[in-house]
Write a structure and sequence with these properties.
heterodimer; A: alpha+beta; eight-stranded antiparallel barrel; two-stranded antiparallel sheet; B: mainly beta; 16-stranded antiparallel barrel
């Protein structure tokens, strides 16, 4: 993309931002505070669990930011035709995208969902979900966070859909466990549309299957995400 | 012709008067509940709620509290250590209806008391009973070609013996309303009242409920219930089939078929229905076509009934609905009615529900407009 390396380093925090406005403020501050900001930035990157040693050569990689995303889940129960579904439209995240003739390479993927934003349609059930699934022993509600180093996506067919499987880690209750997600990436006018599917076993996180008056969920929870992402080159120019 | 018109008017009035609020539970499709079996013991709905249903009932109320089953000697004795689920339900519908503009209103207050019982027996058997006591009869419209069944102050609406073969397959035999499309509780709507699905229509029947991951099938055969008018003792059979169209439990489409024969004639009904849910709102829709051949009046004619219902759960406990209805009956009993209704239902607690509605109906042939306002309080025991 031809963007200087120093500018691109400043990009990573944007992937953790919850809004464009917040991102721009953060970047401007770091630009002014120089070395101190860089230390803060490094800490952020480490906290996000992305090994800096694996950061690829950024010359050809474009930062991509989620401009609108949702994640939904679905879990069957032991009662026939009773399935619990939930959704959050507060998904944020980003990646670095390397576009080549052989396909798309996604690097440093991250997606974050605030637990409080997950809704099942019944408020009391939401409270139960937060309490029994997402709450830590000390009463904290850490975000659900997916991160992966990379995903190689190739054109699946002539329809222009890139398909890939990314293996990374999903943190629930602050506990990271290996997690794989099948992604489909489609280019659109504004950037990219990404959809993904994966499955989580509650038992992997030591979470007991929730139960309510004889209705008990399965251990396996299906997860689906839909997001639109844009390259952030224009914002880069403004910050510089 | 005047006589037929008079009957049509009486019928129209009847619908206006006994319409009750759709404190609608098929609206739970918005949360992915495709059928009644998640919350009710009876897969056809109605009757006592199972413990999960009671928890949902409480959670979906204004109080939005936790359901905590009472556990004491009395409850254990009444419930036969959990085998019996039963409740008492008291309904107070109040209504004022105007047959036409500038005419005096007719007020009605018809309280009803229901006792509902579901008793689990050994080896997959169960008994389901609902008995209604009432001060005034609420018959469906009295039509020449389809007179209402006889009412009484105590009515056994449901008396079924069920045998569960597998968790998704059961047989029932006894007395109940026939399976129908969108399972709204308002029996005054055209799709119910004009298809023998009124308060006193409980034929003797045998039916099977078979549910799959994405489908539900309910074939049935029926015989007279015993309270039909002379010459109207109908026997027949049919089926109700439903399919989860997209596998996401938010779009159920269905088909119902019925063929019945009585000494005075026969009827064949084909219907299609849909229940769609979109989070906080949804759509219920049904259209039925009924062909009747009447030997007593030497006439064959067709009837169309249409029901459309858009609902919005402004809050979990507060559901507003806009309902449109249409009825069209061919000659010699020609009728063309259009109706619209706005209603609001609020579940205050799992014990108390209130509803209010306004309904207007227009007779296309006479251009007469009738209207009604309705308020209802429903109370039930919960433990």
């Amino acid at each position: 993309m031809g963007v200087p390396k120093s500018s691109l380093r400043l990009w990573w925090p944007t992937f953790c931002c919850t809004s464009n406005h917040t991102c721009e403020v953060q970047l401007a501050m770091k630009q002014k505070t120089g070395g101190l900001a860089f230390l803060g930035l490094a800490a952020t990157v480490l906290a996000a669990g992305v090994p800096t040693s694996q950061t690829p050569d950024p010359v050809d990689a474009s930062p991509v930011r989620v401009s609108g995303g949702s994640v939904s889940f679905e879990v069957a129960t032991n009662v026939f035709a009773t399935t619990v579904r939930g959704k959050s439209s507060a998904l944020t995240g980003g990646t670095r995208l390397r576009d080549s003739a052989s396909g798309l390479r996604l690097e440093q993927l991250e997606a974050v969902v605030p637990v409080a934003s997950l809704r099942t349609g019944i408020t009391l059930r939401d409270e139960h979900m937060r309490k029994y699934i997402f709450q830590t022993a000390d009463g904290q509600l850490p975000d659900v966070r997916f991160s992966a180093d990379k995903a190689e996506c190739s054109l699946a067919d002539t329809s222009g859909v890139y398909a890939c499987v990314t293996s990374g880690a999903l943190a629930i209750r602050g506990t990271r466990q290996p997690f794989a997600m099948a992604l489909k990436v489609t280019r659109d006018a504004d950037g990219f549309h990404v959809s993904g599917d994966g499955k989580v076993a509650l038992s992997m996180y030591g979470i007991e299957r929730p139960s309510q008056f004889g209705v008990r969920t399965d251990d396996e929870v299906k997860i689906h995400l839909e997001l639109s992402a844009r390259t952030t080159a224009t914002t880069t120019a403004r910050v510089r | 012709m005047k006589r037929q018109l008079a009957f049509a008017l009486v019928g129209a009035m009847g619908v206006v008067i006994h319409a009750s609020p759709a404190i609608a539970l098929p609206t739970m499709i918005r949360l992915g509940y495709t059928g009644c079996a998640s919350c009710h013991y009876a897969p056809q709905g109605g009757g006592p709620l199972n413990p999960y249903g009671r928890a949902i009932d409480e959670a979906q109320s204004l109080r939005a509290g936790e359901y905590r089953p009472r556990d004491n000697k009395v409850v254990r004795a009444l419930g036969w250590s959990g085998r019996i689920a039963q409740d008492l339900r008291l309904v107070f519908p109040m209504q004022r209806a105007w047959a036409a503009a500038h005419q005096p209103a007719e007020a009605s207050f018809r309280p009803r008391l229901l006792y509902r019982n579901f008793t689990e027996l050994p080896r997959g058997f169960a008994v389901h009973v609902t008995i209604t006591g009432e001060t005034d009869a609420v018959p469906r419209p009295a039509l020449v070609y389809d007179p209402s069944g006889r009412s009484s102050s105590a009515v056994v609406d449901v008396a079924l013996l069920r045998y569960r073969i597998a968790p998704t397959l059961e047989l029932s035999a006894g007395r109940d309303q026939l399976p129908s499309g969108v399972t709204i509780p308002d029996l005054g709507v055209f799709i119910k009242a004009r298809n023998r699905l009124g308060y006193y229509d409980a034929p003797t029947q045998v039916k099977m409920h078979w549910a799959g991951k994405r489908h539900r099938l309910t074939p049935f055969a029926y015989a007279p219930g015993g309270n039909e008018a002379t010459g109207e003792r109908e026997s027949g059979g049919g089926t109700l089939a439903e399919f989860d169209a997209f596998g996401n439990q938010r779009a159920v489409v269905g088909l119902s078929l019925l063929r019945g024969r009585s000494p005075n004639g026969n009827r064949q009904m084909v219907g299609a229905h849909a229940r769609l849910g979109f989070g906080s709102w949804g759509i219920l829709a049904q259209h039925d076509v009924t062909d009747r051949a009447r030997e007593d009046v030497q006439a064959s004619f067709r009837q169309h009934t249409t029901y459309g219902h858009v609902f919005w759960a402004a809050r979990e406990w507060l559901v507003a609905s806009a309902i449109g209805e249409r009825l069209s009956v061919q000659r010699p009993f020609e009728e063309r009615l259009n109706a619209g209704k706005i209603e609001v239902a609020a579940r205050l607690t799992s014990v108390a529900t209130i509803g209010a509605g306004v309904r207007m109906q227009r007779d296309v042939l006479t251009r007469r407009v009738s209207s009604s306002v309705m308020f209802q309080v429903a109370l039930k025991t919960a433990y």
